[in-house]
Amino acid sequence: MTSAAPRSDSLSGPLDGQVALVTGASRGLGRATALELAAAGAHVLCTARSTRGHSTQPRLPDTTVDDTADAIRAAGGRAEALRCDHTDPAQVDALMLRIAERWGRLDLLVNNAWGGHDPLGDAPTGTPGTDPEVWDEPPEQLRHMLLAGAYSDYLTGLLALKHLLGPAGHGMIVNTT
């Protein structure tokens, strides 16, 4: 078990040596947050369901967790890409145990995972580059949004507290909405 992120020729700043986990780091706000935390010196663990060759949004280029980690490393930062579906308790538990084993702690968790607009089965998807109108979305979409948003934040935060933040006696959880 290592108590601090390894140092190399990398960025340093106010979060130097801190271990940060950003969920939903494949694109949008999650990707931007991961890039900024790395620029501030943190070792960033980037998670998402979208991995190279298995994107949940294949029509969008360079939007996988691997692309985010590559961008951080290209800028001189430290990052790891880890696949995780944050709505699956077994996957989140395994992730937290892996972090505990590798790092021994987690200093910052940014809950940003969101898959609420992923197409559901035969739901209308509109034309490429557009979203369906709200009245065209099936009622199950709201259930999916709650599962992919609020529930995944709750689950990830709870398991982070159980395995990492609580036993370490410190840390921070940030939830995006």
What's the helix-strand series? Answer: EHEHEHEHE
CATH topology: Rossmann fold
Termini, distance in Å? 33 Å
Q: What's the level 1 CATH class?
A: Alpha Beta
The second-level CATH architecture is 3-Layer(aba) Sandwich
> Into how many domains do the coordinates divide?
1
How would you describe the oligomerization state of the chains in this entry? Answer: single chain
Strand order of the largest sheet: 3-2-1-4-5
Question: How much beta, percentage-wise?
Answer: 5-15%
Which class best fits the helix and strand makeup? alpha/beta
- CATH superfamily descriptor: NAD(P)-binding Rossmann-like Domain
How many H/I helices? 4
Low-confidence stretches: 1-8, 122-126
Radius of gyration: 17 Å
Question: What do you see in this structure?
Answer:
There is one protein chain. The chain is built from four helices and five strands, in the order βαβαβαβαβ. By secondary structure, the chain is of the alpha/beta class. The protein has one domain (19-118, 135-175): NAD(P)-binding Rossmann-like Domain (Rossmann fold, 3-Layer(aba) Sandwich), CATH 3.40.50. Helix 2 links the parallel strand 2 (43-48) and strand 3. It comes from Deinococcus aerophilus. This is Short-chain dehydrogenase.
Summarize it:
The protein has 177 residues and is an alpha/beta fold.
Could you give the topology of this structure?
Layout: E1 19-23, H1 28-39, E2 43-48, H2 65-74, E3 78-83, H3 89-102, E4 108-111, H4 140-168, E5 172-175
Parallel strand pairs: 1-2, 1-4, 2-3, 4-5
